[in-house]
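does this look right to u?? siroheme version
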Amino acid sequence: MTEKLVVIGAGMASGRMLENLFELAPDAFDVTLFNAEPRGNYNRIMLSPVLSGEKSYEEIVTHDAAWYERHGVTCRFGERVTAIDRERKVVIAPNGEVPYDKLVLGTGSSAFIIPCPGHDLPGVVAFRDLEDTTAMLEASGAPGSKAVVIGGGLLGLEAAAALRLRGMEVTVLHLAGHLMERQLDESAGYLLQKDLEKRGITVLTRASTKAIQGEGKVEKVVLEDGTVLEADIVVMAVGIRPAVSVAADAGLEMGRAVKVDAQMRTSDPAIFAVGECVEFEGNLFGLVAPLYDQAKVLAKTLTGEADSFTPKELSTKLKVTGCDLFSAGDFAEGEGREDIVFRDPARGIYKRLVIEGDKLVGAVMYGDTADSNWFFGLIKDGTDVEEMRETLIFGPAFQGGAAVDPMAAVAALPADAEICGCNGVCKGQIVAAIEGGASSLADIKASTKASASCGTCTGLVEQVMAVTLGDGFEIPAAQNVCGCTDLSHEDVRRLIKAKELKSQPAVWQELGWTTPNGCHVCRPAINFYLLADWPLDYQDDPQSRFVNERNHANIQKDGTYSVMPRMWGGMTDANELRAIADAADKYGAAVKVTGGQRIDLLGVKKEDLPGIWYDLNEAGMVSGHAYSKGLRTVKTCVGSDWCRFGTQDSTGLGIKLEKKLWGSWTPHKVKLAVSGCPRNCAEATCKDVGIICVDSGYQVGVGGAAGMDVKETERLVDVKTEEEAIEWTTAFIQLYRENAKYLDRPYKWVAKVGLDWVKETLADPAERTALNERFEISQSVYRKDPWADHARPEKAKSFQLVADLTQEAAE
Amino acid sequence: MSWIDICAVTEIAERGARIVKTEVGCIAVFRTGPEEVFAASNTCPHKGGPLSEGIVHGRKVTCPLHNWVFSLETGEAQGADEGRIATYPVRIEAGRVLLDAEAVAAARSAA
Ligand code: SRM
Ligand SMILES: Cc1cc2nc3c(=O)[nH]c(=O)nc-3n(C[C@H](O)[C@H](O)[C@H](O)COP(=O)(O)OP(=O)(O)OC[C@H]3O[C@@H](n4cnc5c(N)ncnc54)[C@H](O)[C@@H]3O)c2cc1C
Ligand code: SF4
Ligand code: FES
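got this back:
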């Protein structure tokens, strides 16, 4: 007896299910197949090659008219089923009802569209079916046309790469910090981004779409940060949602999709489901491998054979020619888990294996995925890898063990890579000197001048020597940054500049970090180096900052905070004092006059910070950065305005300096003072930069301190005018920002590089001007009040509890 | 288990944490990866430092006051330091962070 089987959706899952079914029982069912798309089954995942032109639609059709006819399938294509009447056991569609004995739901998913303004303009498409693909192809036809792809996951990137191949200008917007963040860790994400950029695709991460605009059709995309991108087409590839409205309306048991058991049965014994529209044990499925397993199980269930569906490990590959990536299993770092990381910066290869106990549980690879199937097999089968642990990362072909070269980063530098910035010496010159007989650092200094000036490149020069001379040269041990790397701070700084590394993942990858994302020691340092060297390219990372800098206030021992507004040059007025008094009352703060000529409000609760900042902002006050590795205070004395001995306007100069320098980040904190005469009431001789005013002008001293070490400043220069004093001070601070090791105060740095080198460098007016210009570029980003930024309602929210369960319990 | 909806995953910065107030004190929910969260006591056993303000690296957090490092999976202090923070079951479903209220309640009656 033939039963009536109705299938809703001619997708990849239902197509495979029908194939399996007809193999098992060719004549058991009389099948009617509905599909909302005006066509039958095709290989949806091959839409990417269709978009790029590598395949035609005809090539990806999986079941043609002859196939349906051979198996007696009644095709109702182009017809969307609107309802299921479970009482009468009929499916309702525009061209009439069809009764069923058994019903299969294979409705798949639909693309999620961000409901931002303009999302419904013509020219905004998803990437799900042939219609979307055709729309994109049409848009790509016009010369110079531009595409914006929202979403840097698998789909988005395949669309972007294909549209680029079609000659469009393509920008990918991605909300997270790195591409494909579900499948890749940051290092692999970084390499992928680099490869896409090489093809001419622009990638913007942390990019949040605010609106799509245009007259009658899309013309541009506006981001939250104000960036405006022109677009002839916008592709939204931000995610999918199971297409389950018909199932839900029919009253089937639902989770996020149609709930099924291991036999693919829904809560109605006559109704089954398969594919992306099902939820099994809380899981949804978005790749074809598990859908094919489901299809097989369902075919058996329908024919009365026993089988059950079990989800398996999944692996991901990106179908973009030339971007070889692979990820499988669980690759998060963790307790009891061991990471094996292999990086070959020169060839752009990154591999990471995660081992738990004696099993491989996860793998990420980029650049060389030749062994991915072997690794995937080890993960799926839970193979004991204890025996091969040491050599595992080299893959199945590996025999015997060559250790990874710890100097790979240096060895990989090209001959024209600059090693000594002061004297413009490249790697090639140093190698030539060594080949010409130089065998010690002193020889190199003498013959090439490398490391003969500021000396911060010494470590690198030594590494070039070690790489060139091999065992014949032993590097004097330099302190590494932390356990994540063998490199010293100086090496890291030099390499960030030489290799133009502009993101933390770039540093981790190119410099061979041994941990996935650093630690509390290296992250703040790397974050500073990157923002100091690439102020316009790098985006400051709050999660790499110590609590005080992240929360823009000093944490106290009881978890409250102290709040210290700026008092420019130590000057204040009645209004400011009133606002401070009001804030102290309102937020219950203790009030203390600090050693830095300003007022501290102590004991403020975290959740009150945005409020007190808002109030102080209203009175015209900004953050005093009392918490930062950055400019703290500029102390002044009353100077010529009031004092009978004052020679110059020390208060005025102090205020000018503070207004110029505030907001800048430095390797350690920086404090200044300006005294009106050599009596030095502002204690300028123990500051990082201290200026003493005299009749003939200004004596600028540097490298003073009065903390754990007490140091008197040394004279940098005597100048005649205020402008010159400001110019020299700024140049000195920028030189310090560009060269010092993180957490070295200026006096420590000056001791390392020598005051003579500092003086020589700054004596050159062109150099001073360049340093001043670079400082100003950086300040164009950082000279802004972080309090005002964090008091905005969107940011202020993050200072509050995210949930209060004590209230919930009381309710 | 009784899962309570706390917030959207995206409300917690990657490698950051947010706080939930409960009957057993503040619980910090750490986001160690795009799709990975852990919940643990916010209070450092050393001198009470707020762990939610620490730097999060791998599946660990460093206390902001004196740099003790804790595993977020086991709650154990790492290295030479000795101590433990309570951890609680937490998971992500459909972009929402869910905390097991029963485990929190059990911790309360045990206290
Ligand atoms: C508030 C203040 C003390 C006061 O009540 O007067 C203060 C308070 C702190 N100082 Fe200071 N210092 C303060 C003036 C100073 C001074 C005097 C000065 O600036 O004229 C010095 C010596 C001068 C110098 O820096 O060379 C000073 C040398 C230090 C040091 C040692 C620095 C060094 O390089 O040796 C530290 C430790 C550090 O930074 O690593 C420190 C660290 C600290 C910290 C931030 C400790 C911490 O990390 O929590 C204190 C924060 C207290 C809080 O919770 O708010 N504080 N500290 C002063 C704020 C000045 C301001 O208005 O910004
Ligand atoms: C461009 C692209 C590339 C991809 N690449 C890969 C890849 O490389 N690897 C991988 O594993 N996966 C990939 N995928 C995902 C894969 O295609 C899906 O997981 C798979 O197609 C889902 O199969 P399905 O049968 O559940 O749903 P679908 O294939 O989506 O089929 C569902 C069908 O049901 C129809 N339908 C829905 N509602 C109704 C209704 N009420 N009445 C009638 N018909 C209805 C729809 O029109 C659709 O034709 C890719 C997807 C896309 C879009
Ligand atoms: S001297 Fe500075 S760091 Fe020490 S207790 Fe006083 S404020 Fe704190
Ligand atoms: S309070 Fe946490 S380490 Fe001291």
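Residues 722-739 of chain A form the longest helix (18 residues). idk if thats expected tbh
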